[in-house]
Amino acid sequence: MSTTTQRKIMIAANWKMHLNVSQSSLLIHRLHERIKTHRSVEVVLAPSMLVLQPVSMQIDRRKFHLAAQNAYQVDEGAYTGEVSFSMLQDMVHYVFIGHSDRRNKFNENLDTICAKMAAAVRNGITPLLCVGETKTERLAGETTRVLHDQVTTALANLTAREVQEVVIAYEPVWALSSGTDFMHHETPKPDEIAKAVETIRHNIKELYGVKASKQVRVLYGGSANASSAYDLLGVEGVDGLLVGGASLNYHEFSAIVDAAFRVQQEE
Ligand code: PEP
Question: Which parts of the chain fold into alpha helices (H)?
Fold first, then answer.
């Protein structure tokens, strides 16, 4: 965390393609019991597209905000199987854009991601942009260049004012868990995370100015769990966590939210 800004901590759960409607409802019920409303920590849940509607009726919106894991960049038309950003208005606060699953398994390129960022903003939904290098790129010493390319192309159609509102998650692809091995997976050292976050803010500063670079929230994602959350949240410049595997377990996820409350109280 930075002690010099008032950026609100965000803990975001990426449920990926897990949990049907009744499993999601059960998890929400448990999270409601376990997590207290706290004005200084924002808790965001990203269930599957199918589950968003029932979950949106179930959640206490003072406690949880919703995110979609994806959306299509055209507002309406003959795009069989897609759901547009405009259809998600009023249901979600955020949409994930550029997650490595989308980049690597669904071939989303920099242009598609740029178009999705613009579509989100046009429809009044805050983009949660995921960026990060693969293992090969890391070993080739290309992390800084990859982050530069991913950040600058994604934000290319936005104004400085719009960029300020964006949330960026630094998710090194090699550190993401398979969903179950988040306790034992290789993760970056705190100074590597701090350097990546600094690179992201530097790129934003160069193009959109100091205010945007200081206001934008930058999360870390990659095998975060209840034991690592407190330390990860203490890394300079990190404003929260994007949590995959550990978010499916309510003990783990609520302990991560507790760690965020502790960090916030110590500020
Ligand atoms: C993710 O895929 O966004 C993620 C953070 O996953 P995990 O925490 O399981 O590594």
Answer: 21-34, 49-58, 85-88, 100-105, 110-122, 135-139, 143-155, 160-165, 190-208, 210-215, 229-233, 250-266
